[in-house]
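Assess this:
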Amino acid sequence: MHLKLGQITTIVISSSSTAKQVLQTDEKFFANRPSCDAANAYNHSQFGMPWLPASSLWRNLRKISNSHLFSAMVLDANMNLRHNKVRDLLNRVHKSAETGEAVDIGRAAFETILNLLSTAFFSVDLADSTSDIARELKETVWNLMEEVGKPNLADYFPLLRKLDPQGIRRRAAIYIRKFMDLFDRIVEERVRLRSEISTSDSTKDDDMLDALLNMMPISEYQLDKNQIEHLFLDLLVAGIETTSSALEWSIAELLKSPEIMSKANAELEQVIGKGNQVKESDITQLPYLQAIVKETLRLYPSIPLIPREAERDVQVCGYVIPKGAQVLVNAWAIGRDPTIWDNPNKFLPERFLESNIDIGGRSFEFIPFGGGRRLCPGLPLATRMLHLILASLLHSFTWKLEDGISPENMNMEDKFGLATQMAQPLRARPVAIIS
């Protein structure tokens, strides 16, 4: 689809074959993302990995993410941390089950993932269930993602950027500043503590912040304190919102389809056994659970629109995409393409049981986290968290809708930002499964 949005030529791609050409075959000509005025707030576009051009700085940040933050070795080393945070979540849900109180699934997932990431990043629990900080941060995260995802006149009429006619950049700056002030305090305190201990102890990689601070003196990484804080902003905001939204959609679809929920519970009981806690190592033995996660991400991709910019005139499927054109790969539409998927709007995890379709951006009919060199760097951690939390909630509790709501009249409307979120937060009542 060819659109002229203001002064910007926009090409929307909704087929998997064309997506493959843009994201893989000719990706060197589509390596950059189009300019986004909201990302200029707080000068974030000069430091944020999603917005940087494919430069040496961007490549270094990708290398740091892939090798030092999200490698299999690092994630394996942090496995017990994830198990402990999920156990904390189950304890909180047990209290709701005892009182018969409904759980806000999105908020519970958000708090757990926020604590998990903040502990892994800088050994701090940011979501204390006794305070309002998790609610405030959730609102700030979604507000920021909503502002960045809004249609912005300044993006389509570059002459308007100085005016910020809709106030999007101004509001985004307010939300980013809240995070940067928080990160600045955390980093400054860590630098102070490191200066007070011995050199050998101060260079231990106790968490991601320590690892990044240890890289600062090494010139090849091009890291400074400001860069570290912007990197945390990208990783925390994207990791929390996309993963918690996916978890909320998963449970919503299971509540809407009780027979699928029963199959998932049966698999968990057979593999894990009653009374046992789910571990990450169990996930490979849970093919139906993995199929549920894939099916959720097919219908509600973490990145519904994947933006790219043409570096030069490029011929794609017989058409010339002009230099400077904005290209939007519509992962949401590709995931519901009736030429690829039978009953594309129906939640059917079984479709993935005999399929080799990969979640990591190599199967272009299924690209929930993007594809090519700009594939979401936190994907390995996001998938581990999503499977572990979902399996644990299903194995420990039976879930029921609130009174007056049936599977037939559930509100499954979504709202678009940079991620696909439920328009109405999902609430469900947990009933503890007696071991």
About this structure: The domain at 2-399 is CATH 1.10.630.10 (Cytochrome p450). The longest strand covers residues 8-13. The radius of gyration is 22 Å.
